[in-house]
Structure formats: structure tokens, C-alpha cells
Amino acid sequence: MTSSSDPFAIQGQVVTAESGDEYINAISRASHFSILKPQTIFFPTDFADIPPILQYAIAQNPPLEIAVKGGGVHCSPWASSEGGVVIDLAKLNHVSLSPDKKAITVQGGAVWGDVYKVCQEEQVDVVGSPLWFVGVGGFTLGGGYGPLSGEYGLTIDNLLSAVVVLSDGRIVTASPTQEPDLFWAIRGGGNQFGIVVQFTFKTHPLAGPFSVGTLIYDGNDLEVPQVLKTIQDWKANQSSKSRLSVMFIRPGPHFTPKILVLPWSIGPNVDEVLSPFRENVKPLVNVIKSVPDLFTLSHGSDASFAHAPKRLIIRGGFVADLWTDMFLEVWKRWCEHTEGNEDVRSSGVMWDITSPSKIAEVGESETAAHVRKYHHWFSVQGRSHKNSADDLNKAFVSSVASYIREFNTHQTGEDLGVWLSMAQGDEGAEAVFGANLPRLREVKARYDPIKLWSKGVVIEPDFNQL
Ligand SMILES: Cc1cc2nc3c(=O)[nH]c(=O)nc-3n(C[C@H](O)[C@H](O)[C@H](O)COP(=O)(O)OP(=O)(O)OC[C@H]3O[C@@H](n4cnc5c(N)ncnc54)[C@H](O)[C@@H]3O)c2cc1C
């Protein structure tokens, strides 16, 4: 440790169970499954506030667990602690653009809305989240698939450097030339190497306006295969400028199964993206609008998230293709799960069809995020208001995510594993990090030999190579 100052005297806020509503607000997360009750929550406002907090937690007998919160959106309890310490980075959310506008520097507790606000004002763009409330920290450390990934790759492929607080209290810069192994590891290796208090990303020219569609199809036996065929055909000729999100939903008032297709594209050319989706099968809802920029785009789903049940569990991963048998089997299982049980009918399945060509330009061992061959991502989401539905939803999410993973492995001969950003922590480090796990274990031994970062998908240090 390099500092011995009192963590309770930091410039930022310190919250405990005695703080009343402040404590309730501070432990709140996007998913109720992520809420635990820590002893103390520290809100640092300065990077130098953090080493004394680490020192304090380590010095207790027994030492206190340390959890780090970015945006608090991950559907696991990794950014929370039962009885330990939470370092909530929410007040470290400053964003600034370099004078030449080619790089944007973002503190580790910012959410993407903070970044897009500056981008909007300064007329630049960055590869970030489709949703404003997602934390830059967790999103980036898990790779980061965003609206501009078809054009510019993952968020980590646009990361120029980072400032990291290590478990021994040192604050270091990681880049291709400074601490290069650490820089490699944080690009997909998650929270296992330190607290990233600052990211510097490459910027791009303003991409908007975007054409954004909302199409809803009836989920009858005739139309579902037709919608899927339209998606498959569209995907075969997909441009890097366009993307589809496909979701299984049961909207009110009748709550019958529907397929929601959200096509969007850079530029105002609506017809190019939408015509097959309007002509091949007639959608029940057929809306298209022009959205000026990512800030506005990232607020597009605010109304639906405001009402979405907060008992949310997600598991997700990658698929090399949207095979007919797999898609229809998942559709069938989702229909069965959500049929006749209003407590679980908000549960869904989502397929993200972003052009993977740019992502695949980076080699599998170039960053810790190893899934680089042609792929798309999916997420299976259990949502409910009631805890009586938890077991059903958890079983559904586990079984469908496993089914998709196994189907993909069977079809391609390659297991694409589990995505850290949508993992639950019981999958094992090999499933998440694949062939990059041995190198990650070596880097862990150098940068966190005491395993201070012990939440999430834990990487065991390998001291043999030191
Ligand atoms: C509705 C929804 C939609 C999503 N859509 C996408 C998407 O389109 N693309 C995509 O790539 N992902 C997506 N995700 C996944 C999302 O990126 C991850 O859940 C991510 O971890 C959230 O980051 P956070 O900072 O908000 O989370 P948190 O819960 O705060 O943190 C998640 C993990 O990261 C760690 N962490 C956070 N910040 C830091 C930091 N600065 N330094 C060190 N460790 C840190 C935490 O300790 C924790 O282990 C989505 C998730 C949800 C729930």
C-alpha cells in the first residue's frame, strides 16, 4: 500500500446501514438479484481515495470482502457485498475530450449516457452501449458490443489506455507500451486485475442520424419461420452499418407470443434496411423513425425499462449462426415457459445481429476477449415481480442458455463458451476465458497475487511463470 490515510475521511461520501435512505439507495441495483447488504459503501471522488479503502478492508480481522460498482447493471451480485465493502465509482464519472477530439477520457464510474452527452455536444462518436444507463466499467471490461461495433469492433478494440488501481494500492497506466500485459488482461478479463478508474477511448466521426425501426410480428406457427427466414436472408448480406435486435416478447393487453425486430442503421436510408421486413411478412406494428445521435438512441427504451420487472437474471453467450432448428426450439421453450403464468411472462430471449467482420479482424489472443471468429451474441432473460417465480425463471434461463451453447458446439465443433457480461459466476473460468485463461492466470499472479479481487469469475493466479 502506498497510502495510509483514513478511508472514512475521503472527500467522497461514506454510507453505512445507519445512513437510512441513503443506504437503501446506495445498495440498489438494476436487478434485485444483485442487491446485498455491505457494511460500508465508499463513494470516492479522487483516485487517491481508493488505496486507503483497500488498506482498511485488508486490515480488518477477518479481512472484508471488496466489491467494485460501475453502473450496477450486471445481473449478478459481483458489484455488491454481504457484510463487506463496496467501492461505488458513481462519483468518478467525469468525461473529457482531447483538444484534437481524437480521444475521449472517461472516469471508471461513468455510465454511457455521460459519455454520449459529451459526444453529442462535441459532435464525435464512440463505441459504447446501446443503453445510456449501462456502466462504462463493466461494459468495457466484458468486451463491449455496441451500436457502432459493426463499423469499429468491440469497445475494447477502441481502448487506447486505462488508469488502474492495483491490489497493492499502486495507481498505474496500462496501454500498449505501459504495463502491456495488464492492458491485454483488462480487455475482456473483467474485474480480476484492478479498479479501472479511467478509460481513454478512440473517437470516431459523428455516425448519426440513425434509422431505427420497431416491427412486431405475430408469433403464429406460419409466421415465425417466415420472420426467421427474413432475418437469415438479411443477415447474409448485412452491412457493417446496420444491426438487428430480435426479441421474444408477450406485450399486453393479450400477452400472446410476438417477435420484436428492432432494425437500425447508420444513415437516413430507411428502406434499404426495412423493406424485407415489411414485404416478406406483414408486421402488426411497423414504426420507423430517424434518431439524431447515440445519446438519443440510448434513451429509446426508457419507457419499457421503467416498467420492466426488476427480478432479472440473465445468462448469455455467442452463436456462430442463427440456425433454424435452434431458433425454433428456443422459441418453443420460451412459449412454453411464459404460457399461462403471468409471473414469468416478461421473461425473454434476445439475439443481437451485429455484423461481426470488424470484431473478427482482431486475433483470439490479441485481447483477453477470445471470441473473435464470426459470431453474434444472445441473452436469455428471466424477469419477474415476484420471488415465487425465481426458481422457474432461473431454471429456464440456465437450460436455454446451455441448450444454445451446446447446439452451437455441436454445429461448429467449437465451444464459444459463456460471455462474462452475461455470466452468473458458476460457469467456471475456462468457459468464460477459453484458451486465454493460462495467460490471464499468469497476469493475475503479477497484478493481484493476494486475490483481492475475488468476486465474479475468479481467475486463480499462476505463480509458476513468475
Ligand atoms: C438490459 C441489459 C442490456 C445489456 N446490453 C448489452 C449490450 O448491448 N452490449 C454489451 O456489451 N453488454 C450489454 N449488457 C451487459 C453489460 O455490459 C454488463 O452487465 C456490464 O457488466 C454492466 O456494467 P456495469 O458497470 O453497469 O455493471 P456493474 O454491475 O457495476 O459491474 C459489473 C462487473 O464489472 C466490475 N466493474 C465495473 N466497473 C468497474 C471498474 N471501473 N473497474 C473494475 N471493475 C469494474 C464490477 O466489479 C462487476 O464485477 C447488458 C446488460 C443488461 C442488463
UniProtKB/TrEMBL annotation:
<dbReference type="InterPro" id="IPR016166">
    <property type="entry name" value="FAD-bd_PCMH"/>
</dbReference>
<keyword id="KW-0274">FAD</keyword>
<dbReference type="GO" id="GO:0016491">
    <property type="term" value="F:oxidoreductase activity"/>
</dbReference>
<dbReference type="GO" id="GO:0071949">
    <property type="term" value="F:FAD binding"/>
</dbReference>
<dbReference type="InterPro" id="IPR016167">
    <property type="entry name" value="FAD-bd_PCMH_sub1"/>
</dbReference>
<dbReference type="InterPro" id="IPR016169">
    <property type="entry name" value="FAD-bd_PCMH_sub2"/>
</dbReference>
<dbReference type="InterPro" id="IPR012951">
    <property type="entry name" value="BBE"/>
</dbReference>
<dbReference type="InterPro" id="IPR050416">
    <property type="entry name" value="FAD-linked_Oxidoreductase"/>
</dbReference>
<dbReference type="InterPro" id="IPR036318">
    <property type="entry name" value="FAD-bd_PCMH-like_sf"/>
</dbReference>
<dbReference type="Pfam" id="PF01565">
    <property type="entry name" value="FAD_binding_4"/>
</dbReference>
<feature type="domain" description="FAD-binding PCMH-type">
    <location>
        <begin position="34"/>
        <end position="206"/>
    </location>
</feature>
<protein>
    <recommendedName>
        <fullName>FAD-binding PCMH-type domain-containing protein</fullName>
    </recommendedName>
</protein>
<keyword id="KW-0285">Flavoprotein</keyword>
<keyword id="KW-0560">Oxidoreductase</keyword>
<comment type="similarity">
    <text>Belongs to the oxygen-dependent FAD-linked oxidoreductase family.</text>
</comment>
<dbReference type="Pfam" id="PF08031">
    <property type="entry name" value="BBE"/>
</dbReference>
<dbReference type="InterPro" id="IPR006094">
    <property type="entry name" value="Oxid_FAD_bind_N"/>
</dbReference>
